[in-house]
Amino acid sequence: MIQKKFLFVCGGTGGHVFPALAIAESLKNKGVQNIFFSGRAGSMEERLVSPLWPFYEMTAEPLRRGSFLQNLKLPFKLSRSYIYAKRLIEKLNPDVIIATGGFVSFPIVVAAGRLKKRVYIQEQNAVPGVANKQGARYASMLFVTSKEAAKAFDHPKIKVVANPIRALPDIKDLKRPAEFSDKKKAVFIMGGSQGALGINNKVEESIAKITNRDDVDVVWQAGAKNAKGIQERLGILPNVTVCTFIEDIYSYIAHADLIVSRAGASALAEILAFAKPSILVPYPHATANHQEQNARVVEKEKACLVELDHEKNELWEKVESLLDHPQKLKEMAMAAKKLGNPKAAEEIAEIILKEEAGL
């Protein structure tokens, strides 16, 4: 049993929360007993974390890039958040703080650094978030997902490790979804629970070409707000299943020949962990355009193709160019396998524990 106390702080989006949960689970499996989380009250992080781990409320204000007027009152708000964070750390007395981003993490990281606590930061994206970028000076070590991402930090201790994800099931235990016929090629369009408007538009515009392929099955996760309207407009399609949200998403990823997706860090980490070739359509309004940068890193390694929302719609043409050339798909899958790491959370936990044991 490891006696040290670990405090995780993360928030804002699932992209920040899920890596923290994955690392926490790995630490628990390695004997760490005292693990706590902190985040905002009534937030996504509270909903995701509180059923699993002790959760302590924090107050924090967003750090806005380049907005003078919006940041005018920020020093006063940060001071209040810092005092709150300092009191929380003094109350819990953690030995180690692990921050995975989101503005709620910044005051905790600053307070921890000033209190001489050990801080580890994990950054998911090719372009670091403001909280991680500014908080890096207080970190004992940084974890990033690529050499490109490491260039954004001036820090003596940076480890390049794939984005941590929850433990993957054995692919042998994942049944082929009924929507994917055994003798047909399978395409999975991942839009997330809310769907992805840019992807949806491109797919709907191409539906005549898609339904013309009797050798391809498509599962299209269009999102809760979009699926009904698409179904009403397009009717029953012979080889396309339009759905709102998929619970058993790993089965669809595992059995797809090709995946179409946004380029958020968590989705991308899962695609790469399954060694799947993909066509990435980055969300154009992501902070600092980080989704496109994520996609370009993968594209550079020849593990995906990229199409932007505003570009001419050639999405299905790209799909066909890969489905009709199995060797190209195989090469992309091999490249994805090199980038992906389903054991990333375990590796990060191991590195942190070795660092702590060496003190």
Please provide a written account of the structure.
This protein has 359 residues and is of the alpha/beta class. It folds into 2 domains: 2-164 and 343-357, Glycogen Phosphorylase B (Rossmann fold, 3-Layer(aba) Sandwich), CATH 3.40.50.2000; 171-339, Glycogen Phosphorylase B (Rossmann fold, 3-Layer(aba) Sandwich). Helices cover 42% and strands 18% of the residues. It has helices at 14-29, 44-49, 68-71, 74-92, 105-114, 130-135, 147-150, 197-205, 207-211, 227-234, 249-255, 265-273, 290-300, 315-323, 326-339, 344-357; strands at 2-9, 32-40, 55-58, 96-99, 118-122, 141-144, 158-160, 185-190, 216-221, 240-243, 258-261, 278-280, 304-306. It has a 7-stranded parallel beta sheet with strand order 3-2-1-4-5-6-7, sandwiched between helices.
Order the strands across the largest sheet as they lie in space: 3-2-1-4-5-6-7
Give the CATH H-level superfamily of the largest domain.
Glycogen Phosphorylase B
**CATH class identity of the largest domain:** Alpha Beta
Largest sheet entry: 7 strands, parallel
Strand content: 15-25%
Based on the coordinates given, report the CATH architecture of the largest domain: 3-Layer(aba) Sandwich
3D shape: elongated
> How many separate structural domains?
2
Mean pLDDT comes to: 92
**Cα distance, first to last residue?**
18 Å
Helix content range: 40-55%
CATH topology of the largest domain: Rossmann fold
Which radius of gyration do the C-alpha atoms yield?
21 Å
Total DSSP E strands: 13
Order of helices and strands: EHEHEHHEHEHEHEEHHEHEHEHEHEHHH
Structural class: alpha/beta
Assembly level: single chain
Ranges with pLDDT <50 over ≥5 residues? 68-72
